[in-house]
Amino acid sequence: MLAAHSFIKVAAITDHDSTRGCKAAIELASAYPDVLIIPGVEISTVQGDMLVLGTDELPPKPWTPQAVVDYAKAIDAVTIVAHPFRMYGMGEQAKNFKVDAIEVLNGGSSKEANAQAKEFAKALKLPGTAGTDAHQVSELFSVYTQIDSAFSVDSVLAAIKKGAVSAHTARGTVPL
Ligand SMILES: [Zn+2]
Description:
Helix content: 25-40%
Largest sheet: 6 strands, mixed
Structural class: alpha/beta
Number of strands: 8
Strand order of the largest sheet: 1-2-3-4-5-6
Number of helices: 4
Low-confidence stretches: none
CATH architecture: Alpha-Beta Barrel
Radius of gyration: 15 Å
Shape: globular
CATH topology: TIM Barrel
CATH class: Alpha Beta
Order of helices and strands: EHEEHEEHEEHE
Number of domains: 1
Oligomer: single chain
Bound molecules: zinc ion
């Protein structure tokens, strides 16, 4: 199913431990020049979920956080700690790994867990991103990341790394 939004035109597709969906989305989106899909995946590492943006391949196993970070660095991809203070989150352990950003606004997390993630990112001096955690169409677009970049995958990845991002709630859609 296709979904559209009036101003959210860039989407990272990060299925759990699979890149099939993002490959399909890139294919579908190729018909729409105003839509940019960032390839990615959410890896279930042994210590919690980690997002990798900028790849349509899976990192080699075993999926430890360090191995995923090493893989991402080698291919210039971006690592983001997903919903650190929720189930399947890495929690404080995330500080032991050279990740690029922390997800500070997750559409499926409580207000408290998101606030804790925001403080955590601030303490680590890491950029904070938003992710809907949408598992169905009705959950899309609840939150979004504003990115100061050109309209290309490389530019978006670079902007996340340098912190040219801010996390926002799409007003009226999610009570945060
Ligand atoms: Zn997750």
